[in-house]
Amino acid sequence: YKKVDRKVRPVPGVFPEEAKVTRNFPEDPLDSLVPLPTTPPEFIPNGRLTKERLEEINFNADKFLWPEEEKLFTHILQLNQNAFVFEDTQRGSFREDYFSPYIIPIVPHEPWAFSNIPIPPGIREKVVELLKEKIAAGVYEASQSSYRSRWFCVIKKNGK
């Protein structure tokens, strides 16, 4: 429940043309598909897809697939392993020849700057390490913005 003074109301207006995302298909994605084998090979770990990560995906938990279907699906996963992200450093973004950069339109307003809730000293080092990892992976980036929103840390059940 929000009090009336905290309620967010949409601002009436027209979405600017320059902010619209353009979608293109410079090439037909079906042209680059590799034909699938009738007898798929055994799984050989390489690149991003390791035995542990394949077990983590757990795609046949209810044993719905037959063994040969499971091998074929594993082969398909291996052919497309770059589509999966297991660490922040493996993240990517959409190619600009397929999607134009996203522009967020704003209306004139006064920027806000809220101070953060202090980080508890017991987890400060973990938080700093996590932030450095996210910056190195490109998830977070430096900003010169006038805005500053509150954020806080919560330790998850796994201790991270």
UniProtKB/TrEMBL annotation:
Stored SUPFAM superfamilies: DNA/RNA polymerases (SSF56672)
Cross-referenced Gene3D superfamilies: HIV Type 1 Reverse Transcriptase, subunit A, domain 1
InterPro entries per the UniProt record, alphabetical: DNA/RNA_pol_sf (IPR043502)
Record protein name field: Reverse transcriptase domain-containing protein
